[in-house]
């Protein structure tokens, strides 16, 4: 399955959750399939989506879904340990694993040799999911209802969708997202 299709299937089941999306093409793909003020599109800071998501979960009670990539998680593996030890019940970390750094030229990542789901379990994540079939995606609501922290491993094909860049200025992305964060708190 292409990453954009996985993002679409997940995004269709999101309602009012706050979403932090990994840099580059994943953000562009999410923006293309379902734009929302509840989405924070990262335009830089590779490897930091999980850390930003963790900070957000600790600052408020709303459910936070982080759409991250295998390369970014491998770049900042300390975030998995920190997430587990902080144990935010409102965090879902979705790792879209295409075994490459898709936004920087599709160089291979070590996800070819490291099982990220087993890595998350070994860190201590008790709530883990593997999405690979149509049934798994249809049941993403079960993931959303699970008390976190939750780790979701999504295997996707390498490649980026041919979608335009996000036509919002970074300040606009930030201000509308912060408006959504403040709306509920």
Task: Compose a concise summary of this entry.
With 185 residues, the protein is an alpha/beta fold.
Fold and architecture overview:
The termini are far apart. This protein is α/β, with parallel strands linked by helices. Helix 2 links the parallel strand 1 and strand 2 (39-41). It is 42% helix and 19% strand. The radius of gyration is 15 Å and the shape is globular. It has one domain: Thiamin diphosphate (ThDP)-binding fold, Pyr/PP domains (Rossmann fold), CATH 3.40.50. The mean pLDDT is 90. It has a six-stranded parallel beta sheet, with helices on both faces. A two-stranded antiparallel sheet has the order 5-6. The chain has helices spanning 3-11, 25-33, 49-59, 70-75, 78-86, 116-123, 134-138, 140-145, 170-184; strands at residues 18-21, 39-41, 64-69, 91-97, 100-101, 107-108, 127-131, 150-155. Helix 1 (3-11) packs across helix 2 (25-33) and helix 3 runs parallel beside helix 5 (78-86).
What labels describe this entry?
globular, Rossmann fold, alpha/beta, 185 residues, 9 helices
Main beta sheet: 6 strands, parallel
N→C terminal distance: 37 Å
Radius of gyration: 15 Å
- For the record, the count of structural domains works out to 1
Q: Write the CATH fold name.
A: Rossmann fold
The secondary structure category is alpha/beta
Instruction: Specify the helix fraction band.
Output: 40-55%
Please, what is the CATH homologous superfamily?
A: Thiamin diphosphate (ThDP)-binding fold, Pyr/PP domains
């Amino acid at each position: 399955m292409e990453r954009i299709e996985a993002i679409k299937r997940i995004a269709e089941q999101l309602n009012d959750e706050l979403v932090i999306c990994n840099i580059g093409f994943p953000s562009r793909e999410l923006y293309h399939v379902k734009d929302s003020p509840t989405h924070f599109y990262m335009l830089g800071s590779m490897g930091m989506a999980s850390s930003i998501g963790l900070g957000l979960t600790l600052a408020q009670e709303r459910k936070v879904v982080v759409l991250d990539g295998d390369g970014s998680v491998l770049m900042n593996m300390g975030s998995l340990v920190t997430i587990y030890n902080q144990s935010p019940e409102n965090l879902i970390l979705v790792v879209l694993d295409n075994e490459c750094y898709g936004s920087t030229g599709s160089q291979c990542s070590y996800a070819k040799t490291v099982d990220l789901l087993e890595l998350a379990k070994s860190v201590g994540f008790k709530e883990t999911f593997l999405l690979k079939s149509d049934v798994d995606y249809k049941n993403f609501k079960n993931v959303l209802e699970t008390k976190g922290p939750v780790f979701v491993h999504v295997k996707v094909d390498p490649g980026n969708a041919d979608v335009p860049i996000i036509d919002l200025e970074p300040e606009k992305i930030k201000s509308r997202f912060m408006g959504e964060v403040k709306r509920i708190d």
